[in-house]
Design a protein that fits this description.
119 residues, alpha/beta, six-stranded mixed β-sheet, 6 strands, 22% helix
């Protein structure tokens, strides 16, 4: 299983599309087997969900996410968890322990880089 966390400075990014990149955790059972960082290749509508799917991601964790990205992840049967905050390692451990729930938070307004305080 692969879990991707939208990341900004080692913590969960508040905005999926404008994050610095994605910390991708390979998980075996309930243990983290490997961790890599994928730089965000750029925010283009519909691109990032397909990019993460192509990288084998099964679960995405972010602070917030737009409806378009959520729709694509749903089509690809990728689990979405929004409303998360904190250090990425801590959040993944919390998920693996069954203590992380989604707020089902959807960003209703499409923000561009620089408009929501994210890059």
């Amino acid at each position: 299983m692969k879990i991707a966390v939208a990341t900004e400075n080692g913590a969960v990014s508040a905005h999926f599309g404008h994050c610095e990149g994605f910390t991708v955790y390979e998980v075996e059972g309930k243990e983290i087997a490997n961790k890599v960082f994928l730089q965000n290749p750029g925010h283009k509508p519909g691109f990032l969900p397909n990019y993460l799917n192509d990288n084998g991601v099964n679960i995405i964790i972010a602070g917030g996410m737009g409806a378009g990205a959520i729709e694509i992840f749903n089509q690809k049967n990728i689990e979405i968890i929004t409303g998360a905050s904190g250090k990425t390692d801590d959040i993944v451990k919390k998920y693996l322990e069954g203590r992380l729930t989604s707020s089902a938070s959807v960003c209703r307004q499409h923000m561009h880089a620089g408009e929501c305080g994210e890059h």
